[in-house]
């Protein structure tokens, strides 16, 4: 376990450097964009982005299939099979881009004509932004096979470099908005459409130069049987992502219908903040996921389950490490970030962070079930659960429920999805529910309670401000770290951490 663990930690280190840079640039970019566009135009941009993401799950489903088969083949050490998968992926993603283009046009016409609540004088600008986002999405779709190659080779260093370039370009766009005299929303949409084209070109050139499976020969490396197998896997994954992504992004349209543009601004801020916090755990998972699939490819089910359980636990802890102090001090954090945050932003941020935190408890199970190649039943269950969220939320609003009812419904649905994933992990992978409760749920809940209780104490005897924020964050960080080592780690995990720490210390001493 030591060698893969060291590799995961090293790749996670590259990703965390990326996180530090990207998060700083993104937070500052969002502040500039909100200031340059204004609350109303910022809300319009989030509506258009939500509509695009609603259909982006089609690409996401195929991306998961590509990464699964590429990593599985890497575990099998089958070079020719990797070339076949790469070329099949190129063909499939070309057609996905074409399908999405057609669907975006149709859905856009319906939404702009009959559904969206946008002021008449901003409809044209919103339509231009929507078209720019379509172009951006098409380039993102075509980059998936290359992202899958980097993922299979666990090359998180180059992935991190591309991410930093992307975030830097977004900051440049935000700064340029203050120098524009024409419609800033239209200019913002046009410039944002160029960024995926640049990052796609960088990634494509690198992969073709460094990886032998990146050979474009559609006739030589085409396998109809493997194409049907990947398409079937993607089809069932499509159901799961359809229910999940449509609900999450469709919530923007529901909130817009019942609350208006200003509510969408608060919703957009909440999604961005939760996304920034989530990258600390999701990027660790990005380093872990190929290892899980490779272990299944090596037919080592025991190790696959061990990495999956450890992934859930540490994903939750990493997210809680930042989420708990931020939730405690959310009003002041948003004030520092945005100066004047939109109404409901504090409440929305807290609720969406809670939902994401619960989701981390079973976050690697999707990868583990997918590694077996049989995701049909789990995908159907998740699709049914999440599909109910929007109509239930609409019914709540019709009955006079408060505007945050959407978030409460989504929290409940995420809990149901976690139960479904746990059931299918038991059924298909042999995971015991008792093992999950013992190794994941119990330590995660215990660590969270200790961290939250010690952090919230400061609210009762210190005034709001930077000093209290610093005290809350430092205390929460220390309590989370200590309780994780004392209560959250198994003997084997402690042994690995102690070994890594000893190597670091000895390396420093030897240099001196």
Task: Describe this entry's structure for a reader.
This protein has 512 residues and is an all-alpha fold. The protein has one domain. Helix content is 85%, strand content 0%. The protein is built from 18 helices and no strands. It has helices at 2-76, 79-115, 123-142, 144-152, 156-176, 184-210, 224-259, 261-297, 301-328, 330-338, 345-359, 365-371, 376-387, 389-398, 405-429, 433-456, 466-488, 491-511. It is found in: Cell membrane. Keywords: Cell membrane, Membrane, Transmembrane, Transmembrane helix.
Question: Strand tally, please?
Answer: 0
Judging from the principal axes of the Cα atoms, what is the shape?
globular
- What does the main sheet amount to? none
Tell me the span between the first and last alpha carbons.
Answer: 30 Å
What features would you highlight for this structure?
globular; single chain; 18 helices; 512 residues; mainly alpha
Q: Which helices and strands occur, and which strands form pairs?
A:
Layout: H1 2-76, H2 79-115, H3 123-142, H4 144-152, H5 156-176, H6 184-210, H7 224-259, H8 261-297, H9 301-328, H10 330-338, H11 345-359, H12 365-371, H13 376-387, H14 389-398, H15 405-429, H16 433-456, H17 466-488, H18 491-511
